[in-house]
Amino acid sequence: AFHEEFSRLFELSQEETTPQQDPRLQHVLVYFFQNQAPNRVIERTLLEQFADRNLSFDDR
């Protein structure tokens, strides 16, 4: 699941943006990818998403 979500968000970060639908506002990792954050930061943030019980019911 980790790698699937990582890939999905990376692909989202590569899409063209419009002011009406900016993917950086949909997930913080898209913002991190677009701003070339260190992989350690990206991986840690994604792992925290899976560790948070409140986010475990997210269907994305």
TrEMBL record:
<protein>
    <submittedName>
        <fullName>Uncharacterized protein</fullName>
    </submittedName>
</protein>
